[in-house]
Predict the structure.
Amino acid sequence: MMAPVVGTPAEPVARHLGRGDAPVRITAKTEYGVRAVVQLAAEEGGDLVKAEAIARAQGIPRKFLLNILGELRQADVVESRRGADGGYRLARPPSDITVADVIEALEGPLTVETPDALVTPGPEDPLDQVWAAVEKNLRTFLERVTLASLVERGSLGVALANGKGQASGSSDSPIR
């Protein structure tokens, strides 16, 4: 039986990161997608893993997981084989796949969106610079977090436990 690599099924599906009334929302699709590929990354030798085994280990509804794996396959994050001996595995080494790759495969480009109704008063609006910096830093952070680094740590929650975006004992990277 395959043991869960990231968290437990009892953990919340959607993450609300932030303070007060303005959380950053991580969709269930993204949460499940990252959990699924980390599970695949933990497989020794890139063995094929059945979707049912991933769903069971991660507490992901099977039909939802199959849709997610289909999108990840189309984006060349995972590959699949049909049949009795079929299943899923990563399309590239876990050290070559980042959390940013997974999110972009499932949700599209990593961008910070502001409401269309909020038209900036001029080309030098300082808030535009803030949002651009947030987007750049988010992208930079997520591009540094590889599936291999998540497997090494056992879970993203453990890796970020000190609340500063760095793993305990690490000074140059958020996860590695």
About this structure: Residues 50 and 87 are 4 Å apart (CA to CA). Helices lie at 28-41, 51-58, 62-74, 99-107, 126-144, 147-153, 156-159. Residues 15-159 form a domain with the Arc Repressor Mutant, subunit A fold (CATH 1.10.10.10).
